[in-house]
């Protein structure tokens, strides 16, 4: 859980900005949006398959790009 200590010379806006940055770094907003609706296991597996395919194609693209330079 993110939390910040407000400094004496710090305004509310600055403290709020630091708090928002910390929330973004901890992926709190992203996780809450992902958990907003129930997702069946089949949907999760489908997304994992798609992301694995994208990752593999990206690696293949980078490898071919690297080999073309040789």
Describe this protein with a few key phrases.
70 residues, mainly alpha
**Oligomeric form:** single chain
User: Describe the biggest sheet?
Assistant: none
Low-confidence stretches: none
How much of the sequence lies in strands comes to: under 5%
* Form type: flat
Distance between the termini: 49 Å
Number of separate strands: 0
Helix/strand-derived category reads: mainly alpha
**Helix percent band:** over 70%
Secondary-structure element string: HHH
Q: Average pLDDT, to the nearest integer?
A: 90
Instruction: Report Rg.
Output: 20 Å
The number of distinct helices, counting runs of at least 4 residues, comes to 3
Protein name: Small ribosomal subunit protein bS21
InterPro entries: Ribosomal_bS21, Ribosomal_bS21_CS, Ribosomal_bS21_sf
Keywords: Ribonucleoprotein, Ribosomal protein
GO molecular function: structural constituent of ribosome
